[in-house]
Amino acid sequence: MLRIVRNDDAPAETTPEMEPEELGLDEICRLAARQMLASALLAERRAYLEAHADELDEAGHRLVVANGYARPREVMTGAGMVEVTAPRVDDRREDRRFASAILPAYMRRSPKVTEVLPILYLRGLSTGDFAPALGEFFGSGAGLSPATITRLTEAWQAEHAEWSERDLSGVDYVYWWVDGIHFNIRLEEDRLCCLVIVGVRPDGTKELVALADGYRESTESWATLLRGLRDRGLAGPTLAVGDGALGFWAALRDVFPATREQRCWVHVTANVLDALPKRLHPQAKTALAKIYSAASRTEAVGAAKSFADEFSPFPKATAKITNQLDMLLAFYDFPAEHWVHLRTTNPIESTFSTVRLRTKVTRGAGSRKAALAMTYKLVTAAQERWRRITGAELVALVRAGATFIDGKLQERSINKTETKRTTRSPAAKAKKTGSVAA
Questions:
Q1: What is the dihedral of CA 164, 165, 170, 175, to 10 degrees?
Q2: What is the pLDDT of residues 325-373, one digit of tens each?
Q3: In principle, which of 116, 209, 248, 364 could form an S-S bond with 222, CB 3.0–4.6 Å?
Q4: Cβ-proximal residues to 129 (8 Å cutoff; 6+ apart), any chain
Q5: CA 75 → CA 35, 79, 138, 221, distances in Å?
């Protein structure tokens, strides 16, 4: 242990009063943070006073002068709880006031600590666990009460509401992944059905497009959401990927009829297996993989026919493939580099595994608005780590209307008349010229 003794030669305003004592590493870090913060605040005030030293009143007195110190207050920082005595300034100029950029008025937590608290909450730390879990780390449990964390969720609700009304006329999404995610609401009987849309921008980046409350993934719930997006200036995507059971598809055909449809192979595989005896699941998975992993649409259609023949005793299972084969194989009309992204709704499923973990810890949010706000913050936090899709440079070509067959870009066909003109022989040209002259 180190023994820290007060330096009597140091200025009283920069050295906190303390008795000689033995301090551990954490206490030394907090002490150093306290001293450095005090020095920085004094330097900030000194710079402010010097910048306005030439401003005088009629009697020749300075209008901007030092004015002692504010009452001590504790600020939670990354180094722990630090007591701060902020220097004050008496600014007598009209409509002017000194405001510290280092330590704003009423600040109780540093920006980094303010950021980490909601992250810990979203990752599963309950409101009542903050003080015991972090009190020892920060040196105090102040500012970690359940009420403090609850106020964060209220701020998230306002943030989500504002985000849900944002202008969309300046953005474009070429692909959409859509899904309905269900959560338990602790204080309500009905479960929350969270309608989610994640989109791909023309540069290949993925973004959250929409997050709204719905009931049973109904067509009307989805139609209301899609109309809202359209009315705020958003154009429909080129392709939408989702589960075949969604009411989304009927709403999509009504609001954005030009958008093509791709069914999620993960959901379809699960539905097919539900219609088959368990003993046949391994063979069925292999047969289904041959369909969606085929190198071309022709091979995929052949694999689908083989699947239907092999499992013909189970018509309910085979119908789940044959009745919607065109929508299961729509991805073949897009770049091969994008197939891995377009066959499933994995971008949504993988992200919402974190949301499910959080709701499992807390046994569900207290209200529908709180659940939506928490989901919004979790997804936007995850969005910062999302990578661009493979073949990102091809996304803009898809939006421009380029043709892809079996994943390969097709050259534009030249007009037949133009081809004739460019391939006509010199003799034919001379003959035509002579006949015109005659």
A1: 30
A2: 999 999 999 999 999 999 999 888 887 776 666 555 555 555 777 778 8
A3: 248
A4: none
A5: 13, 10, 10, 46
d(CA 245, CA 234): 25
Q: Which of 264, 259, 258 is nearest to 242 (CA)?
A: 264
Q: Tokens 């289904």 identify what position?
A: 288
Q: Provide the 3-class DSSP secondary structure of residue 74.
A: strand
Q: In this structure, what token pair is assigned to residue 174? A: 């070429």
DSSP state of 219: H
pLDDT of 6 > 70? The answer is no
Distance CA 346, CA 333 (A): 20
Domain boundaries, the chain: 2-107, 113-161, 171-383
Structure tokens at 327: 């929508």
- CA separation for the pair 119, 139 (Å, rounded): 20
Q: Which string of DSSP letters, residue by residue, matches 343-380?
A: S--HHHHHHHHHHHHHHHHHTSBSSHHHHHHHHHHHHH
Cα 70 versus chain centre, distance: 41
Q: What three-state secondary structure class fits 188?
A: coil
Cβ 130 vs Cβ 149: under 8 Å: yes
Query: What does the alpha-carbon distance between residue 345 and residue 407 come to, in Å, rounded to a whole number?
Result: 19
Structure confidence at residue 438 as a pLDDT band (50, 70, 90): very low
Predicted confidence band of residue 121 (pLDDT cuts 50, 70, 90): low
Q: Which two tokens stand for residue 92?
A: 């007598």
Residue at token pair 């539905």: 271
SS3 category, 108: coil
How far the first Cα of the chain sits from its last, in Å, is 114
Its pTM surpasses 0.70:
no
Cβ-in-10-Å burial (0-12, 13-18, 19+) of 358 comes to buried
* Nearest residue to 46 via CA among 6, 76, 14: 14
Region class of 94: left (phi > 0), else alpha (psi between -120 and 50), else beta: beta
